[in-house]
Target: Fumarylacetoacetase-like C-terminal domain-containing protein
Amino acid sequence: MRDFAKVGRKIVAVGRNFANSGTRCRRPRSSFSNRRRRILRTAARWNCREGRMCTTRVRSRSPIPCHEVSEKKRLTFRNVHQAELGVVLGKRGTDIPEKQAMSYVAGYCLALDMTARDMQAEAIKAGLPWSMCKGFDTFTPVSAFVPRENVPDPCNVDLWLKVNGKFKQKGNTSDMYPRCSHDRDRPR
Model:
């Protein structure tokens, strides 16, 4: 599993998973639906080149190395970032019962969800699909693999993000909506 970024086939992301995302969108938390958007990203969006460090702190308080994000050609002018806890599945499964879901989890990683908001707004306004705004190469850099036993409570992991030395995000997986232990999304 340590090489999950080399052998993984897809990334399934869940949209609107942090309560504060609703605040940014000027939507009250009560308006969040249990039917959240799933966003499919190809594994080609992972950036697996070793580079600068982005870190998160897990129980041991040691940094987890992440990978450099490089943009050779500027295609977006309003790129937003969100640090998230990535769940790495250790075996295949479909329609997994919720009570068995954790037995499929091999570990975790820090994932950086990046979105070209300007492109997203244009696509939505035109009634077009907006998957491209999340589909650029390097738009989902991930950290090294963290075994499940090193994260005793995935529902209580501090996540923070600095961009150019400035805090852009401070939070905890307990801020996710609905709370991760009651998440109805099953790995597929």
